[in-house]
Amino acid sequence: MGLRDRSGEGSSHDEDFITVRQRLYETDLRPVNNPQVVLIRHGQSEWNEKNLFTGFKDPALTEKGRQEAKLAAERLKKLGFVFDCAYTSALRRAQVTLDIVLEALDQKNIPIEKDQALNERDYGDLSGLNKDDARKKWGEEQVHIWRRSYDVPPPNGESLEMTAKRTLPYYNAQIKPKVLAGKKVLVAAHGNSLRQATCGFSIIMQLEGLTGEEIVKKELDTGVPIIYELDSEGCGKVLKCTVVNS
Predict the structure, then answer these.
(1) Which residues are catalytic?
(2) Tell me, what CATH number does 193's domain have?
């Protein structure tokens, strides 16, 4: 991740190179007192590998997915993360990702809450279909509408808006209060459940201040942690977002 000063303070001309370099590193890597929450999408699943719509179905992680989770743990360990509690969905690909991360961090004894509110979006009749086959059956444009519009569900499935109505209320009621109370919280879930939530907002949409058009285009890599540092005052405004991909 980039090591740059985000505080808005420029270095003076009197500072030598060593002083500036030291300050830049301390800006990103020093221990922080502000609340932090770490979000991570599950590692690659067997259906991700096969390019299938997954949704509520429950495939296992691939070996690549397990390695992604281990790598995520290594990166978090380098940053010195010690978590107080964790949250995940009712689906095993998210649960196993969380288990691998916590085991590698030697933190499996922390409280873990599992809730279907954090489940992936239900793709209905698309579930289990290859995405290319679905395009052949219903057409490229229709499948794109189901996947990327906010309020149009696939047959017998959930729209992003419907997914939203169970995700953000859970985050605001169960997770956010602990974060603002100073707990280090890890959330292992799914691409759409981390993105989507009620009233046109999602966990990430709310944290980053994205529009509805922006959030449906946002992609989350499997097994890559995202650290949000929040302002403890008021509603918990994001002070810094760091994608831990190196």
Answers:
(1) 42, 120
(2) 3.40.50.1240
Instruction: Dump strand ranges (E) for the chain.
Output: 36-41, 85-88, 112-114, 185-189, 225-230, 238-243
And the tokens for 63?
Answer: 């070996």
pLDDT of residue 15: 40
For the record, the structure tokens of 145 come out as: 């509408």
- Give the domain extent around 94: 34-243
In a domain, 24, yes or no: no
Say whether 120 counts as a known binding-site residue: yes
pTM flag (> 0.85) = no
Q: Is residue 157 within 8 Å of 55, Cβ to Cβ?
A: yes
Q: Reply yes or no on whether the pLDDT at 2 is more than 60.
A: no
123 is in an annotated binding site: yes
Query: 208 lies in a domain?
Result: yes
Q: Does residue 199 register a pLDDT over 60?
A: no
Say whether 41 counts as a known binding-site residue.
Answer: yes
Is residue 90 a contact partner of residue 58, using CB atoms and an 8 Å limit?
Answer: no
Distance CA 15, CA 178 (A): 40
Count of domains observed in the chain: 1
Task: Note the pLDDT tens digit of each residue in 148-165.
Answer: 888 899 999 999 889 888
Tokens representing residue 240 in the block: 């810094």
